[in-house]
Every structure is written in structure tokens, then in C-alpha cells.
């Protein structure tokens, strides 16, 4: 609950005084970030004026479909955008008060893997097939051991510790990745990313490639580790179920923008949602099988090489109004930290009360 | 009644809701025309094509300007080793023959032989590679092991063996080259076809009852075309040089015939004082090989719809 | 609607008992054409009657029935039992959902049922005929009437062919139409049916997004007007909003054309949504089979229970609650010991689970489970 309060406080602060980095700074703050991919024939606007913040120990779920810019955001935070193609066009990423875009590349190395680490989607390709898994965990420790504080034996002990932590018997550290199943490989990847006890873990679809029962194991393990180590986490996923079970905060992304953000309760239980969020919920068949027909979002993702004048979701939006395709929608505060970027709520934005609209929970019979 | 009647049922049902006038605006385009359009967009490939066309035109029309016997074969010792001039554009060789005439006539032999060799080898290699990749098992083993035996012998050694046992001459030389080239082709085609064989669209084709021949010809080979074309064009130049090489050691085209390799090898004796003797045949080989490679690259890209833009 | 259709059908059948069934049925369809506005009903009825008149003798013959179906693959380590004695039935016009985790043999099962792979043992009956004993002619007919839709909309379309060529291919192969014009018209119609704009005909697969590609795959499967379609994870590679579009399309087509589906997936909520009946597979065995609703209300097999409990649900009710987590992972399908395949991961497993294969038993009407404890 404390974390929750912090989130709301900061939101208000940001609103008022444009975020002076004082003592109360968040662990991660992304301000007005813009990322473009420039290719020979087109410019892709991957992330547009995106802001979010995250406190210590919190988990932020970043939800959206393919091409929403979720992974680009993660890569931008780590300054790992593809060279000569991906460019940060504006904004700041503050990690623990330090502007990550303002420091030198070799200073950045001290952050990557040590203070911020990332888990990629496919465990099959993120491990080197010709190096023993134990050595791959040891490697990250050695990399961040410039001051030689750790001896060889200590590193070995730490590797064993990490293997125990992720639920793999340490005896198996001498095996190669191909001797592990998908779920086990993802555990190794998680062990690598947590070896240096990072303050922030960015997990890009960590369980998408896994089977449900294995996914449940890995998610439970990640939850457990998070609470034990106090790591903050950005969970990138398209699976609203995963978000509901693991996250404290949720940001819904569409075409490079956050269209709605708030606590997990705001998104899953409260009223007043962005039509895209409603569409996402309407697209998932529920397990109790109450609906006979799904209500999907019509149409397709917009062309990311174009910058529309108004709302990016307008062409697919069932609640579209005249102003939607002309004026960019404002960020509307719905009370607390709940934000919706939509014209529908523009009237009620000033005092923070939401205009009563049909919410997806109601229409779907109590989600 | 089953299929046909249902088909009509289905037509009836859908006819009403549909307006076909709107569809006619989008005519199905022919695949060939699209390939040609894509090829035309590739500037380097077009350069190659223009050069090749020029070569072909020269080969076809050469008889109007030169006489094979008097200009390319008959020795004229009075005019030997003359530098390039208006009378002899590329000069004359050590027997007084016009080098330009010999190069143009030589194109007939070098170009035509190597193109024939590569065409035959490509077809053979594609068929062998496709059969062994598609059927696998013992078919694969049989073809590939025999293939390996041929592959183990160096190309030149094998060509020498073939020519030595069958006698020299253009046909035998061509045969020797085919035998030397096919094993490499078969191997490359097999590896290009293997990953395609397990694609789901092959299974989809099987699911609607497509017979093996059509699957091979329509779905597998077109998708393996890229490496096949690159391999073929690369080998064209190599074959041209190999024919020249074999001719040089006396196993291919006999000396008076105007073959680029023969001319090159004969010219080396006088290279120091009369460099044009090797320069022009060498230049001819380079230009022809380059043109063919450019065309090959262009073909590969044009055949791949993914590289449309 | 379906009740009404049934009733109508009854009258027509009575009217034409003495006359030739085929003509009578067509007459009925024609007559109704003008009278009714609802196209869906028409097609549905037409197809249904056609089906019934053909099956004739026994209307209850299931579309697909497998008996002790086995498919083993030879590997260097021994026989891999991908499908190991599966009995199931798919009724005409219904959807059987097959769920299970990767490596449980569900995709192999789908391919054996279509005879894209030959079975090691057992038989598959398509409308009562054993597909492994069909004559060449019958096989051709079977190929036309059964189709498959694949998971990966990238790998399942030939990148060298344009959209119209892909959809036309089955028509050419089966020589359905004589003139090229008719064939093209059929392709346009099919594109319209699956919601593809006519302007896409000259596009190549790589120019389309995942949802459209999947629609092309569906059009290719439907263009021969089949009765039975194996859907092998058709929506797993798609984004949720596109996934919902495709699921709706598949369900609409089923209703319109009276299709029978075998729907293979690992997604429990999707299978719940689309299926009439569900079969749960584990390591080549069907461990539970039941009407969809019953399976979710009353799962009997410990694996089904674990599977249901493992799904992350998009609401907060389960948040923070302890769930029943399976320990361990799926064991090797190579030369498995006789006995319950799930026993190594099962909390209730005892000596009675090992040593012999547990057969699928009926625990309540229509609900089959293979567990020693039920």
C-alpha cells in the first residue's frame, strides 16, 4: 500500500511542479521519451512522448500488442536501440536520479546487467549454446567485478546460490543449454539477470514461449524473488492474465503511446477506461464462457510511419467523436494515479472525476 | 452430386451479397510480368543484360563482317603481332590473325559451351538435389553417396579423366564440365531445399491432395531458387575459365579454333612485348563473366517477391 | 434457428421419400431461397441436408472417429510415442477442442487424422470409412473434404505465390473448375467470405499482417468447400484483438457452412470459447474428454485441474491466492513406461498408477477420464 501512495504522490507532484528531482525521486522515471527508427524509405515513430515512473519494489505491467513500442521502450531505457537505425528524439530517462542519456557509454556499462537487467522473450536464443550455463551466470558476475571484490570461489558460491534461488539444482551448472527444457532455460536466464541483484528488472514477455504450467511456475518464482530481493520490475506482456497476477501498476500502450495507466485495481476493476483497453478485454474469451461472441477491436494497428493529427486509436475506436481525428487527446486524470488519454474524459479531467461511461467490466458481466 | 452441387449451392448463397464489378478493378497480375518489372528496376542487372545482348548480337552478326576461315583461322605471317589499329581493332596475334575477329568468334565457343554446360548442370543438379532432399531416406543416401564419390575428385582431374577416356572435342569437354559441376550443384540444391520441405505450406499443399511433382515444381524449387541462381551464375564464369584451362593443356578446344582460353594461353608467350595479346581475351572473359553474374544477381532478386521494393 | 432448420428438413425429407433424395434436397434449398432473407440459415440448411442425404443410412455416424490411434517416430534414442492410443469422436457440425502443452502430441494427432502422416497403429474413420484403407479415388475425395489451418501464418503460406494464387492452388490441383474465369471468381468470393479486400489479390504474404495472412490460410482451406477442418493453433501467433477477429470468423463460418472443427490449442480460454467438446492430452494420451462446459465446471483428472489452475486470468480475484502449482516438467515421450504418464508430477499418484496403462473411463455421461483415482 505504501508503494501505491508513493505512486499517487509523485503523479501529483509531476502534475504541479514538473518533477524536481528531490529526495523523493522514483527509481525510474521516463519523461516525454520519443524514439524513432529511421530506415532508408521511412521513419517509424515507435515511441511518442511517453512518460512513466516506477518506485522501488513495484512491478509495472506494460501491456499492448505487437508494434505498440513496448520492447522499444525497454531497449531505449537500456540504451540498446539498434545503432544507426534507432534514435532517441527527445525526453529523459532518470534512473535513481541519474539521466541515463547524459552519461558516457562506459558508465552505462555499469548500469546494464548490474543495476538494470533485462530478460528477453526467447530463452532458446538468449543463452549461448556452447557455454555451460554455470559459466554464463558467472560471466555476468565477473563482468561487474572490476574492483576484484569477489574471489573466484565467491563467484562460484554465488552461482550456486543463484541456481538454488531459481530452483535448479546447482549440480546442473556444468550442463549446456541444450540439455535444459524451455522452462529451465528461462530460469537460467532469470538467474543471470538477477545475479548482480539489479534494482530494476525489465522482463520482455518472459513467459510467452513457455507452457501454461511452466509459465505458472516461472511467474510464481519471479514473484517470490521479487518480494525477497525487493527488485522493481517492468513486465512487458500482451497477456492481461499475467498482468493481473503479477503487477502493481499497469500501463496500456497503443502505437507508441501510453493510452491508460493506473494501479492494477484501476485498470481491472475501476470504471472509466480507454476504448482500447475495453477492446483488449473484450477480445479475450473468458474462462467461465459467458459470452457467445467476442467483441474484438475492428481494423488493424495504424501505420507507424505516419503521425496522425488526432488520437492514434481513432480509426478503430467504436466511440469515436468528431474531435478525435483532429485534436490529440489530453491526459485525463481519473482520480489517484489513474490516467486515460482520451477525449471522452476531457470534460471531467479538471476535478479528477470521471464521466460515467460504460466500462468493460459492466458490459462483460463482472470481470 | 457431392462436390459440384455443393459448389453451386455455395455460389448461389454468396452471389447475392457480392458485387463483382468492384472486383474487376483488381485484375490478377501475371507472375512473369511482375518478375520482369522487378528485374527492370535493378540497374546493375540491366547493365549486365545489355552487355549480354551486345555479345549475342555480335555473335549472331559476326559473319557479315568477318569470314571465319580467312580472318580467324588462316595464318598471315606478314601481319603478325601488329598493334591495335583501324584495320585491326585489337591488333593481330603471333600468326597474324585479327584478334577482334577471333574474340567475337571465340564468344560463340566459350559463351555457348559454358551456358549449355551450366544449364544442363543446373537442371540435373536441381533434380538430383530435390529428389534426395524431398524423399530422404534411401533415395537421399543413394544419390548423395554417388554424388560424394564424384565430389571427392578435383574438378580438373575429373575433367581430364573424362576427356582422356572419351577423347577431346567440344562435346566431350562439355560433358567433362557437366560431370565436374553437377555434384556441387546437387549438394547445394539439396541443402537449399531441405528447410523448405518442412515448411507448413508444403503440408498445406499435401492436405489438398497435391501430387509430389507439383509440390516440387511449384512450391519447393521456386523457393530454393536464390542459391540455385547464384550458384549457376558463379559457376558460369568458373566453367568458362575451366574450358579455357583445359584447352590450354590441350584437352579441350584444339589450337586453331578461336577460344578465349586458348588465345589467352597462347598469348602469354608474347605477353611482355605485346600485352594486347592477353589483354583483350582476358577482358572478354571478365566482361562476359561480370555480365552473367550481374544478371544472376538481378534474377535472384527479381524472383523473390520479398525484395519487391 | 437450428431447431427450425431441423424441422424444415424433416418436412422436405418426408416430401421426397420416394423421389431421388438429391434432387429433392436441392429443390428444397431453391424454394427456400426466395422465401427467406437470412442467408446464413440457407447455406446451413443446404449443407446439412446434403450431408444427411449422403450419410443416409446412419445420421449418427460421427464425422471423425479414431480407434486406438498411435503414431510413433523413430529417434536415435528409441521410439517416440507422439500419439499413443487415442480414441475420440467428432460429431458433424461440432468442434472438438484438443488441449495440451507442447510435446503432448496434439499437432501430430491432427496430422495423422488428416493422413498427412501415416499412423503406426489404429484407425481413423471419416464418415465411417477408414482413411488408411481408402482407394485412390476415395482418398482424393477425402483430401477435398478435409483441410487444415496452421498456427504460423508466416510459414504456412508459400512466399513466392500471391494471395490469389495461394487460394487458387487447391482448385487447380483438384480441377474443380474448367474455366480460369470461374476459378478466379471462386477465389474472389472466398476472399470476401473470409473478409479479405479484393485489392489484396496481387499481394504477397510478406506484405500482409498476421491477421490477414491467417485469413488467407483460412480461405485456402475453405475454397474446396470441405466438411472437416483441423485448426492447429490458428490464433496462437496473433495479437489478442486479431485473435478475437479470427475466432469470430471461424465460428461464423462454422455456422454458415456447417463445418466440423478439430481445434488444437494450448490456450484454455480459447478452447472453452470455441469447443463443444474438449479432449485434454498429456504425453500422447487423451487423459480427459468431456463436453466443454463440464470440463471447466468439474475437471476430474489431476492434470486438467492443474492446467486450469495455472492459467493466468485477467481479473484480480485470484491475486495473491495460493495456486496448485505442478512441480517438475513433462517427462520424455521416448519409450515411456506403462502407467499413467502424469504420475511423476501428480500429487495423488500411488503405486496403482504405475505398471499398467489407465484406460479412459466414463465417470458421468459423456465425460471420460483416465485416472486410477476417479
Topology, pairings included?
The complex is a heterotrimer of chains A (367), B (309) and C (374).
Chain A: H1 2-17, E1 28-38, E2 43-54, E3 59-63, H2 70-77, E4 86-95, E5 98-99, H3 105-111, E6 116-119, H4 133-143, H5 152-165, H6 182-194, E7 200-204, H7 212-229, E8 232-237, H8 240-246, E9 249-254, E10 257-263, H9 264-268, H10 275-283, E11 331-333, E12 339-341, H11 360-363
Parallel strand pairs in A: 3-8, 3-9, 6-7, 7-8
Antiparallel strand pairs in A: 1-2, 1-4, 4-5, 9-10, 10-12, 11-12
Chain B: H1 2-15, H2 21-24, H3 31-41, H4 43-65, H5 68-73, H6 99-135, H7 137-152, H8 155-166, H9 170-197, H10 200-207, H11 212-220, H12 225-248, H13 260-267, H14 276-303
Helix pairs in contact in B: 3-14, 4-6, 4-14, 6-7, 6-9, 6-12, 6-14, 7-9, 8-9, 9-12, 10-11, 12-13, 12-14, 13-14
Chain C: H1 2-15, H2 21-35, H3 39-55, E1 64-75, E2 78-90, E3 95-99, H4 106-113, E4 121-126, E5 129-130, H5 136-145, E6 146-149, H6 163-174, H7 180-193, H8 210-222, E7 228-232, H9 240-257, E8 260-265, H10 268-274, E9 277-282, E10 285-291, H11 292-297, H12 302-310, E11 361-364, E12 367-369
Parallel strand pairs in C: 3-8, 3-9, 6-7, 7-8
Antiparallel strand pairs in C: 1-2, 1-4, 4-5, 9-10, 10-12, 11-12
Helix pairs in contact in C: 1-3, 2-3, 6-7, 6-8, 7-8, 8-9
Description of the structure:
The complex is a heterotrimer of chains A (367), B (309) and C (374). Chain A is an alpha/beta fold and 367 residues long. Chain A has helices spanning 2-17, 70-77, 105-111, 133-143, 152-165, 182-194, 212-229, 240-246, 264-268, 275-283, 360-363, and strands at residues 28-38, 43-54, 59-63, 86-95, 98-99, 116-119, 200-204, 232-237, 249-254, 257-263, 331-333, 339-341. Chain A is globular. The two termini of chain A are 23 Å apart. By secondary structure, chain C is α/β, with parallel strands linked by helices. Chain C has an eight-stranded mixed β-sheet with strand order 6-7-8-3-9-10-12-11, sandwiched between helices. Chains in contact: A-C, B-C. Chains B and C meet through α1, α10 and α11 of B and α2, α3, α5, β6 and α6 of C.
Amino acid at each position: 500500500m505504501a508503494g501505491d501512495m508513493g505512486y499517487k504522490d509523485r503523479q501529483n507532484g509531476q502534475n504541479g511542479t514538473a518533477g524536481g528531482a528531490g529526495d523523493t525521486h522514483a527509481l525510474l522515471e521516463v519523461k516525454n521519451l520519443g524514439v524513432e527508427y529511421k530506415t532508408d524509405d521511412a521513419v517509424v515513430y515507435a515511441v511518442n512522448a511517453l512518460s512513466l515512473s516506477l518506485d522501488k519494489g513495484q512491478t509495472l505491467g506494460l501491456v499492448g500488442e505487437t508494434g505498440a513500442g513496448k520492447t522499444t521502450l525497454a531497449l531505449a531505457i537500456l540504451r540498446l536501440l539498434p545503432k544507426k537505425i534507432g534514435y532517441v528524439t527527445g525526453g529523459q530517462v532518470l534512473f535513481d536520479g541519474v539521466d541515463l542519456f547524459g552519461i558516457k557509454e562506459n558508465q552505462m556499462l555499469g548500469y546494464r546487467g548490474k543495476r538494470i537487467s533485462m530478460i528477453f522473450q526467447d530463452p532458446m536464443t538468449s543463452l549461448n549454446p556452447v557455454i555451460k550455463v554455470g559459466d554464463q551466470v558467472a560471466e555476468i558476475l565477473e563482468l561487474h567485478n572490476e574492483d576484484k571484490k569477489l574471489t573466484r570461489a565467491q563467484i562460484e558460491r554465488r552461482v550456486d546460490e543463484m541456481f538454488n534461488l531459481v530452483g535448479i539444482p546447482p549440480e546442473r551448472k556444468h550442463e549446456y543449454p541444450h540439455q535444459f527444457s524451455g522452462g529451465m532455460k528461462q530460469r537460467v536466464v532469470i538467474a543471470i539477470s538477477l545475479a548482480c541483484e539489479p534494482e530494476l528488472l525489465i522482463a520482455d514477455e518472459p513467459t510467452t514461449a513457455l507452457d501454461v504450467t511452466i509459465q505458472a511456475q516461472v511467474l510464481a518464482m519471479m514473484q517470490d524473488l521479487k518480494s525477497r530481493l525487493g527488485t522493481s520490475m517492468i513486465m512487458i506482456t500482451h497477456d492481461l492474465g499475467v498482468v493481473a497476477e503479477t503487477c502493481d501498476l499497469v500501463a496500456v500502450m497503443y502505437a507508441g503511446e501510453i493510452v491508460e495507466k493506473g494501479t492494477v485495481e484501476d485498470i481491472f476493476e475501476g470504471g472509466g477506461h480507454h476504448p482500447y483497453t475495453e477492446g483488449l478485454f473484450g477480445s479475450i474469451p473468458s474462462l467461465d464462457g459467458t459470452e457467445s461472441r467476442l467483441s474484438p477491436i475492428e481494423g488493424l494497428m495504424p501505420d507507424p510511419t505516419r503521425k496522425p493529427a488526432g488520437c492514434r486509436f481513432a480509426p478503430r475506436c467504436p466511440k469515436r467523436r468528431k474531435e478525435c481525428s483532429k485534436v490529440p487527446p489530453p491526459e485525463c486524470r481519473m482520480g489517484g494515479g489513474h490516467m486515460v488519454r482520451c477525449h471522452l474524459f476531457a470534460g471531467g479531467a479538471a476535478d479528477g472525476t470521471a464521466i460515467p461511461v460504460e466500462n468493460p467490466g459492466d458490459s462483460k458481466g463482472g470481470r | 452430386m457431392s462436390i459440384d452441387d455443393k459448389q453451386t449451392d455455395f455460389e448461389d448463397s454468396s452471389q447475392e451479397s457480392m458485387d463483382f464489378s468492384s472486383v474487376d478493378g483488381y485484375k490478377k497480375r501475371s507472375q512473369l510480368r511482375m518478375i520482369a518489372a522487378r528485374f527492370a528496376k535493378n540497374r546493375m542487372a540491366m547493365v549486365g543484360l545489355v552487355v549480354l545482348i551486345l555479345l549475342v548480337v555480335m555473335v549472331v552478326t559476326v559473319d557479315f563482317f568477318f569470314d571465319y576461315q580467312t580472318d580467324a583461322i588462316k595464318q598471315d605471317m606478314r601481319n603478325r603481332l601488329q598493334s591495335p589499329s583501324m584495320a585491326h581493332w585489337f591488333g593481330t596475334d603471333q600468326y597474324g590473325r585479327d584478334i577482334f575477329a577471333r574474340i567475337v568468334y571465340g564468344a560463340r565457343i566459350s559463351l555457348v559451351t559454358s551456358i549449355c554446360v551450366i544449364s544442363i548442370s543446373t537442371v540435373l543438379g536441381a533434380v538430383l538435389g530435390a529428389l534426395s532432399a524431398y524423399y530422404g531416406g534411401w533415395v537421399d543416401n543413394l544419390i548423395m553417396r554417388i554424388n560424394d564419390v564424384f565430389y571427392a575428385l578435383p574438378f580438373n582431374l575429373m575433367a581430364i579423366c573424362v576427356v582422356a577416356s572419351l577423347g577431346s572435342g567440344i562435346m566431350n569437354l562439355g560433358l567433362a564440365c557437366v560431370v565436374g559441376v553437377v555434384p556441387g550443384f546437387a549438394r547445394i540444391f539439396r541443402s537449399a531445399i531441405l528447410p523448405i520441405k518442412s515448411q507448413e505450406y508444403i503440408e498445406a499443399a499435401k492436405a489438398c491432395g497435391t501430387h509430389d511433382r507439383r509440390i516440387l515444381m511449384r512450391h519447393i524449387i521456386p523457393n530454393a531458387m536464390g542459391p540455385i541462381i547464384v550458384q549457376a551464375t558463379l559457376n558460369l564464369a568458373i566453367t568458362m575459365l575451366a574450358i579455357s584451362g583445359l584447352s590450354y593443356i590441350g584437352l579441350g578446344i584444339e589450337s586453331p579454333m578461336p577460344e578465349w582460353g586458348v588465345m589467352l594461353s597462347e598469348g602469354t608467350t608474347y605477353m611482355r612485348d605485346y600485352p594486347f595479346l592477353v589483354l583483350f581475351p582476358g577482358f572478354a572473359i571478365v566482361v562476359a563473366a561480370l555480365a552473367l553474374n550481374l544478371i544472376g544477381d538481378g534474377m535472384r532478386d527479381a524472383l523473390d517477391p520479398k525484395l519487391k521494393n | 434457428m437450428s431447431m427450425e432448420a431441423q424441422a424444415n428438413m424433416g418436412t422436405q425429407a418426408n416430401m421426397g421419400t420416394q423421389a431421388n433424395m438429391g434432387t429433392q434436397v436441392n429443390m428444397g434449398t431453391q424454394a427456400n431461397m426466395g422465401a427467406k432473407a437470412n442467408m446464413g440459415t440457407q447455406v446451413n440448411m443446404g449443407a446439412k441436408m446434403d450431408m444427411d442425404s449422403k450419410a443416409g443410412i446412419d445420421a449418427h455416424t460421427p464425422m471423425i472417429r479414431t480407434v486406438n490411434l498411435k503414431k510413433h517416430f523413430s529417434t536415435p534414442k528409441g521410439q517416440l510415442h507422439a500419439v499413443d492410443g487415442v480414441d475420440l469422436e467428432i460429431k458433424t457440425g461440432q468442434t472438438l477442442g484438443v488441449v495440451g502443452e507442447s510435446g503432448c502430441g496434439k499437432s501430430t494427432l491432427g496430422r495423422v487424422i488428416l493422413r498427412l502422416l501415416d499412423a503406426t497403429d489404429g484407425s481413423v474413420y471419416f464418415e465411417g470409412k477408414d482413411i488408411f484403407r481408402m482407394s485412390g479415388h476415395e482418398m482424393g475425395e477425402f483430401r477435398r473434404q478435409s483441410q487444415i489451418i496452421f498456427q504460423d501464418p508466416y510459414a504456412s503460406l508459400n512466399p513466392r505465390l500471391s494471395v490469389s494464387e495461394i487460394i487458387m492452388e487447391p482448385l487447380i490441383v483438384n480441377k474443380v473448375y474448367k474455366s480460369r474465369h470461374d476459378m478466379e471468381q471462386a477465389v474472389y468470393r472466398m476472399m470476401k467470405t473470409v473478409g479479405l479486400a479484393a485489392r489484396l489479390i496481387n499481394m504477397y504474404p510478406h506484405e500482409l499482417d498476421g491477421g490477414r495472412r491467417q485469413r488467407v490460410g483460412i480461405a485456402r482451406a475453405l475454397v474446396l468447400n470441405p466438411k472437416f477442418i483441423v485448426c492447429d493453433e490458428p490464433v496462437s501467433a496473433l495479437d489478442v484483438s486479431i485473435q478475437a477477429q479470427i475466432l469470430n470468423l471461424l465460428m461464423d463460418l462454422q455456422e454458415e457452412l456447417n463445418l466440423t472443427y478439430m481445434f488444437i490449442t494450448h490456450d484454455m480460454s480459447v478452447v472453452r470459447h470455441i469447443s463443444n467438446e474438449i479432449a485434454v492430452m498429456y504425453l500422447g494420451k487423451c487423459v480427459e474428454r468431456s463436453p466443454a462446459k463440464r470440463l471447466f465446471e468439474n475437471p476430474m483428472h489431476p492434470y486438467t485441474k492443474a492446467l486450469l489452475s495455472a492459467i493466468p486470468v485477467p481479473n484480480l480475484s485470484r491475486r495473491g491466492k495460493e495456486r496448485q502449482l505442478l512441480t517438475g516438467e513433462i517427462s520424455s515421450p521416448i519409450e515411456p513406461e506403462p502407467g499413467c504418464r502424469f504420475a511423476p508430477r501428480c500429487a495423488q499418484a500411488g503405486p496403482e498408477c504405475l505398471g499398467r496403462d489407465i484406460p479412459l473411463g466414463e465417470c458421468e455421461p459423456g465425460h471420460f477420464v483416465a485416472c486410477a483415482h476417479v
